[in-house]
Structure formats: C-alpha cells, structure tokens
Amino acid sequence: MLSRLPSRARFLSTVAATPFPAGGNFTSISALEPGQLRSLLDESHALKALYRPSAPSATPPPQPLAGTSVAMIFQKRSTRTRVSTETGVTMLGGHPLFLAPTDIQLGVNESVRDTASVLSRFNDVILARVGHTSTIEELCEHSTKPVINALCNKYHPLQTLADLMTLEEKWGRGGVDGRTISWVGDGNNIIHDLMVGGAMLGANVRVATPPGYECAPDVVERTREVLHGGRELKLTPDASVACEGADVIVTDTWVSMGEEDQYDQKVAEFAGYQVKESLYEKANPGALFMHCLPRHPEEVDDEVFYGDRSVVWQEAENRMWTVMSVVMAQRGKSVQ
C-alpha cells in the first residue's frame, strides 16, 4: 500500500491526474504529459492492490478486459515483457496472443504497414517489442487500434513506468519529487525514458555515460523542458560525479541484443562504470539500486545486486502492473 504524501509540498500532488486517452498509442514517456504519467502510475498501484494474489478479497476481482484481444509482436525475445503481459492481460480477462518472428511475416514477406492493417482487423491492442523505432512509428501510422511500444532501440517506456512505480512504493506517492536519480552506463533506451519520467515527477537526474555513448540530444532537450522547481539534469562521463548525493543508482546491460559482436569493445570502453560499493560511498544513506534485467556481473557486482539496497525483483514484478495499466487506459477502463 502507498504511504501518505510526505509533509512537504509535492509537485504532482497539486497536478490532477489526466486520463490517458482511450485508443491512444503509448510510444514513449516523452510523448506523455505529467498528468498522464500520474494517471498511469495511480492505476498501476490500484491494480496491484486489487489483483496481487496476496490481496484480501471476498469475491474474485473483476475482469474488465473480457473480450479484449492483445497481439504481442516480439522481434526481440524477453522474459519480463512476455510473461508480464500475458499474465496481466489474462488476469484482467483478456486474450494475449504471442507472435514471434517465426509466427508472422512482419518485415519479411509482408510490410509493417500491411501487418498493422491486418492485425487491426483481429485485435483490440497491438503491443510490439522491436528493433527499430521506425517500426513502432509505422505501426502507429497504419494501425487503427492502439499500439504499445514494448521496446525499440530508442525507448522503453514500460520499463520506466515500472521503475517509477517501484520508487513510489519505497518513497510514497509524489515521493520522487526532490530525489536524485543517478544513471551509470550506456545512454540507451532505458535512460531515455527514465530521465524524462524522473524529471516529470520532480527528480534531479544525473547521467554518467562513456564518451561516444551519450543520450540522444532530442531526449535531453525534452528532459530539460519538463524539469521544474529548480531541479537539475547533469550529464557527465564521471560515474562518481553522477552518483554524488544519489537516492537511487540505476544501470542496465552494456551489450544489448544484436550487439553481441561488440561485447569485448564495449566492456573495455565501459571500464570504471561497474556499480559497486565505492560508488555508494558517494550516494545518500539508504540509496536504492535498480536494474531492468537481465544483469551481467560487469555492470554491477554481487554485493550491490543481491544486497539490501537492491529492489530489482520488486521492479521486475511491477512490469506486470504497469503494462496492465496501459492496456486498461487504452481501452478506457479503470479499477479506481
């Protein structure tokens, strides 16, 4: 259960939640307004409170997605995205349909445009985990049903929803405001959404990336647009500087799917970016650790990853409640 609002004023406690538009595409955190982000997080918390197996209930919870079919396009494999979506949609009474590259013709014998047109005739929602951002954009352009970006090379908004939900469970609703989120690693799709989402919730954001692996300029610009209340965005190549005064340190895999041939090069270029105890000496007492998984030892050592400060398993579980929230919003449903 969420704790009460802290006593000091919180930015988003004064901003009314704005319902995510029914039938709208969910492509990135950058595309949201702060009130829409607030609405999705509030729904995620409500879903977890109602549907989690340990939640007390005299009667079975409702199934508001009964009759809803969700096409799940997976050009890239995933443990958390597939299991969380299939389980969550089923829990709500919907029908998830997993579509691997060997199951459909997407981009091989059939164009993305034609695939979008066909699936729109069968399904109510299209969730896609793909390689290129252009694929998500083309699906959105030609689908007559809402599209969820479950990962592309530039964005991973479902992960950011889960990360922010986890932080609110630790710090309370609105509790991200005034905190410092520190990133150490690649300037990739994970931090692209997290930096914008953290800024929307009133956080300071500090990002350490090796030279040549910086975040996309347009995402940095969007982050600066939503910063408020004197909060700062700091970009640096120095992991120690980024972690100074951190309330949570976040990292991710250095070598993404499809980059396996770059492993030796990237590990060498990311030397000094492993999250370990020496970085936590720079952080605030009680600072948390997050990683979206799968994790590799060169990114974070065992002491931090399996230690008391780590919330990676809670973070992984919240992938389910947040994707449920997005599908519910797109269908104009709510349990609040």
Automatic annotation (TrEMBL):
Residue ranges annotated for the Aspartate/ornithine carbamoyltransferase carbamoyl-P binding domain, each copy included: 25-169
Alphabetized UniProt keyword annotations: Transferase
Transferase listed as a keyword: yes
Domain of life of the organism encoding this protein: Eukaryota
Annotated signal sequence range: none
Keyword check for Transferase: yes
Gene3D superfamilies in UniProt: Aspartate/ornithine carbamoyltransferase (3.40.50.1370)
Domain Aspartate/ornithine carbamoyltransferase Asp/Orn-binding: from-to ranges: 178-327
NCBIfam families the UniProt entry points to: orni_carb_tr (TIGR00658), PRK00779.1 (NF001986)
Family membership: Belongs to the aspartate/ornithine carbamoyltransferase superfamily. OTCase family.
PANTHER family with a match to the protein in the record: ORNITHINE CARBAMOYLTRANSFERASE, MITOCHONDRIAL (PTHR45753), ORNITHINE TRANSCARBAMYLASE, MITOCHONDRIAL (PTHR45753:SF3)
Record-given protein name: ornithine carbamoyltransferase
Organism: Tetraparma gracilis
